[in-house]
């Protein structure tokens, strides 16, 4: 039956993203509190952390356990170049520890972990196995282990994004948003609390803070959101899933648009001009990462605009999961020319 295709893939992917969110929460608490020396810069000056590598290793390892007969193919953001440098052995050790701590929790998420802890080589192999080139034919997973790493290291919003692509089409998308609560009102409460407490060096996210995981399967006409397992303990988290839909507001004067926090990632002046010209009056909602897609999918905002500077090529892992979730929640995603995003063009770019 058509609707049941990929149900195992979706089930494993949702559990896996839940588990990855738990890894990220642990690392974010440590980073924001203390271990700032474990934030590394990549060649383009963007940050990368134990969580980026740790999630990539964990997702890669679990997918290859569950779908080994499929010759799992994964396109993902990170590689092992920095981690393999002699000077970075303690960083590598932190990654291995975080992967093993995460996999040890696998049964809590209904997944099977390894019989014994993974060694350094196994972790490096799991990260570097995600080197597929993607392309127009066949099936491959796309992973952004931590999207919005800048938000992540600032103790703010970030997302774990996993998607499955077949013959150039996004079939499944799962978006974990550990700092994006199930209800928008809780976010406002959190932000007020954050401002009040911003002079504290310790993590500000208390146990009351709730994150969510969104997911959708292409063609199902449904998109779903569930709370983080980590926030609910092992209690009934799957039954707490709720359907989400994009906003029904179609008057630009009542609409809110989302955009990146960083001006260097998208021109704020260009979007302000565009918003003004179509009658948008409200202030933009600036949020790090694919949480912007999450905000649109459940109707917290109506429009998402991103216009990178000339020369920057968008990566498929920054969009795939978000696009299918928005579409199944009733929304539309296009490039600046009004065309659908093209996920068949290989690992490094959409048009
Ligand atoms: N120059 C430039 N222009 C456009 N986009 C860029 C650029 N540099 C990076 N990136 C990618 O954008 C991801 C974060 O983008 P956001 O749209 O969420 O921006 S922001 O964090 O809110 O400022 C971010 O994803 P992560 O690396 O996963 O954090 C980058 O892949
Ligand atoms: Mg990204
Ligand atoms: Mg990333
Ligand atoms: Mg990055």
From TrEMBL:
Its EC number is 3.1.3.7. One of its GO terms (molecular function) is metal ion binding. Converts adenosine 3'-phosphate 5'-phosphosulfate (PAPS) to adenosine 5'-phosphosulfate (APS) and 3'(2')-phosphoadenosine 5'-phosphate (PAP) to AMP. This is 3'(2'),5'-bisphosphate nucleotidase. Mg(2+) binds at residues 77, 144, 147, 318. Its cofactor is Mg(2+). It catalyses: 3'-phosphoadenylyl sulfate + H2O = adenosine 5'-phosphosulfate + phosphate; adenosine 3',5'-bisphosphate + H2O = AMP + phosphate. The keyword Magnesium applies. SUPFAM superfamilies: Carbohydrate phosphatase. One of its GO terms (biological process) is inositol phosphate metabolic process. Belongs to the inositol monophosphatase superfamily. Keywords: Hydrolase, Magnesium, Metal-binding. It is an enzyme of class 3 (hydrolase). PANTHER family: 3'(2'),5'-BISPHOSPHATE NUCLEOTIDASE (PTHR43200:SF17), PHOSPHATASE (PTHR43200). It holds the Pfam family Inositol_P. The keyword Repeat does not apply.
């Amino acid at each position: 039956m058509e609707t049941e295709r990929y149900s195992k893939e979706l089930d494993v992917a949702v559990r896996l993203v839940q588990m990855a969110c738990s890894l990220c929460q642990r690392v974010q608490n440590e980073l924001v509190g203390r271990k700032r020396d474990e934030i590394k810069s990549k060649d383009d000056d963007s940050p990368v952390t134990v969580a980026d590598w740790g999630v990539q290793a964990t997702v890669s390892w679990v997918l290859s356990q569950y779908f080994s007969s499929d010759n799992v193919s994964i396109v993902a953001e990170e590689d092992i170049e920095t981690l393999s440098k002699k000077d970075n052995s303690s960083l590598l050790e932190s990654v291995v520890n975080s992967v093993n701590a995460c996999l040890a929790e696998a049964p809590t998420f209904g997944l099977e972990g390894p019989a014994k802890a993974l060694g350094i080589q196994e972790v490096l192999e799991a990260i570097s196995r995600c080197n597929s080139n993607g392309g127009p034919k066949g099936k491959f997973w796309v992973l952004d282990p931590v999207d919005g790493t800048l938000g992540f290291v600032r103790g703010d919003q970030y997302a774990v994004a996993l998607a499955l692509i077949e013959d150039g089409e996004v079939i499944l998308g799962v978006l974990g948003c550990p700092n994006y609560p199930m209800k928008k009102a809780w976010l406002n409460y959190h932000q007020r609390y954050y401002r009040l407490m911003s002079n504290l060096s310790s993590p500000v996210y208390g146990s009351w803070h709730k994150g969510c995981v969104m997911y959708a399967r292409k063609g199902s006409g449904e998109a779903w959101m569930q709370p983080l397992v980590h926030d609910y303990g092992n209690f009934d988290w799957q039954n707490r899933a709720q359907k989400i839909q994009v906003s029904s507001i179609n008057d630009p004067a009542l609409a809110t648009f989302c955009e990146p926090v960083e001006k260097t990632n998208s021109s704020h002046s260009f979007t302000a001009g565009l918003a003004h010209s179509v009658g948008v009056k409200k202030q933009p909602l600036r949020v790090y990462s694919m949480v912007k897609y999450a905000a649109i999918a459940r109707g917290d905002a109506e429009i998402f605009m991103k216009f990178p500077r000339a020369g920057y090529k968008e990566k498929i892992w920054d969009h795939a999961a978000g696009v299918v979730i928005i579409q199944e929640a009733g929304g539309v995603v296009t490039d600046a020319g009004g065309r659908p995003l093209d996920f068949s063009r290989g690992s490094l770019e959409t048009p």
